[in-house]
Amino acid sequence: MLPASGITKGRPDLSQPFDGVAEVQKFRVEWKQFLDVLLKKNYKIIVTHLRSCELASFSHGILHMNCSKKFSCEELLHDAGLLARELEEFYGLPVKLHISYDEEKDADTKGQTIFSLFRELSEDNEVVKFLIREFGGELVY
Q1: Which spans in 61-113 are helix H?
Q2: pTM above 0.70, yes or no
Q3: Strand partners, 67
Q4: Cα–Cα dist 8/141, whole Å
Q5: What is the pLDDT of residues 49-86, one digit of tens each?
Q6: Coil, helix or strand for 100?
Q7: Pairing of strands 62-67, 53-59
Q8: Is there a contact between 53 and 65 (Cβ–Cβ < 8 Å)?
């Protein structure tokens, strides 16, 4: 498991508005709307990575996310601070992130390599499509 940079160590803050494993459902209900807000703010690559993740639980102010793609997990860890701020703004409560790589789920989707992810980005992501079309670029890992 790879902890996100926004996680604090020590005693959990028990004063959160809602806690518990079942409470992750409150995030899931509005998750698509949250992703739409990120798209409007031009965080398209982050949204692409978030789509390979699952909201696992919410407890003591920490939202646990599992990513089925190692590359997506690594990229989201780099953007964990930004993502936590966006979550706080959208949901209206303090949120810390714990982002982890789920090897079991990745094994289930081993057909998807970094190359197929890049192909998917070049076909579906508007920003990437624009760059390729206008500048003749290509995604290189």
Answers
A1: 70-78, 80-91, 103-108
A2: no
A3: 53, 101
A4: 32
A5: 999 899 998 888 899 999 988 888 999 999 999 999 99
A6: strand
A7: antiparallel
A8: yes
